[in-house]
Amino acid sequence: MRDHPRTPVPDAPGADRTAVWTGRATNRVQWLLAAAGAACMALGIELAVDSAWTSGVVPLAMSVVGCVAAGLLVLFGTLAFVHVAVRVDHHSMEVRCGHIGLPRRRIPLDHVVSAEFEPAVTPRQWGGWGYRWRPEKGMAVVVRRGEGLVLRLGDGRSFTVTVDDAESAVRVIRDRLRPGGTGTPAQV
Questions:
Q1: At 6, phi and psi to the nearest 5?
Q2: What is the gyration radius of the CA atoms in the chain, in angstroms?
Q3: What is the pLDDT of residue 186?
Q4: Which of 123, 156, 153 minimizes the C-alpha distance to 140?
């Protein structure tokens, strides 16, 4: 699922450490769910336009509204999490979801205590795809199963995101957390 270029920070001594790292993760299965949502909306519209309305106004109106509402919910709920884009610069990590970049989360690196590579993040661990919160685990953006990065924040919470080449992101973040790196040093 690595179909988008990333700009990793070079590891060579004396390399420019002010570069920006970007990564993405895509879940093509979500497109099937979006198609199901569009089909549900189309059914609601079809019921409204082509029905003889002989069975009663209330049952038909409830069917139309139910199909259109369910279709919109599924369609836009899945399109928001078809992919995620992660950007790490010397000040923060920013996560943007979907085609319009919402929901969005920006985490300043001076709030990060540590960054860890997680080789196997699954939707099952978090209760599904999307922007997730679990009291015992923290928050996550999960668009597919696979590798991800976990940030431990200064307030004791964690933030997990699935992204391709998460190991490079973790290296970049760790470099910027070290005293003498280009980012803000971690709080002790």
A1: -120, 155
A2: 21
A3: 43
A4: 123
Pull the structure tokens for residue 108.
Answer: 């300043």
Strand order in the sheet with 83-88: 21-26, 83-88, 92-97, 104-108
Burial 106-135 (b: 16+ CB within 10 A, else e): ebebebbeebeebeebebebbeebbbbeee
Distance CA 56, CA 62 (A): 10
The residue ranking higher by pLDDT, 121 or 60, is 121
Query: For the chain, what is the total number of helices (H) and then of strands (E)?
Result: 4, 9
107/62 Cα distance (integer angstroms): 43
Q: How far apart are CA 125 and CA 138, in angstroms?
A: 12
Above pLDDT 70, what percent of the chain? 85
Residue 138 three-state SS: strand
Mean pLDDT computed over 63-80 = 84
| Edge-to-edge strand list for the sheet holding 146-153 | 112-121, 146-153, 158-162, 138-142, 130-134
Neighbouring residues of 118: CB distance < 8 A, sequence distance ≥ 6: 147, 148, 149, 150, 160, 166
What pLDDT is attached to residue 18?
58
Q: What is the pLDDT of residues 24-54, one digit of tens each?
A: 998 877 778 888 888 988 888 888 888 776 7
Give the mean pLDDT of 73-80: 79
